[in-house]
Amino acid sequence: MNKLEHDVLFIPADPEMMEQERRKAKELKRSQWWKNQLGRGQCYYCQRRYHPKELTMDHVQPISRGGRSSHSNCVPCCGECNEHKKNWPAESFRAWVEEMQGKL
């Protein structure tokens, strides 16, 4: 999949809503629920194991695409996947990760 294919119909979310969701994400990172997610030690996308401190929070549906900071939309993500995913929808990014892993 070409990395640009996912941006064909991309319309950024409202900046005020994005800021509100970023504040919610900071609160969510302090919750026991998030600590439990990190405790599993696995990246949602590449499925590799990591120390919890090496994982970051990623929004499956990016905030910039209207995603919310909620339990159903936030997942642990390794730094490498987070760096590459940017504002991709999760389905597109996971397909790209699987394609790249198949080439290794």
TrEMBL record:
Cited Pfam families: HNH_5
Domain HNH nuclease: 32-83
CDD domains named in the record: HNHc
Coiled-coil positions: none
Database matches in Gene3D superfamilies: 1.10.30.50
Name this protein carries in UniProt: HNH nuclease
The organism of origin for this protein: Magnetococcus marinus (strain ATCC BAA-1437 / JCM 17883 / MC-1)
Taxon lineage: Bacteria, Pseudomonadati, Pseudomonadota, Magnetococcia, Magnetococcales
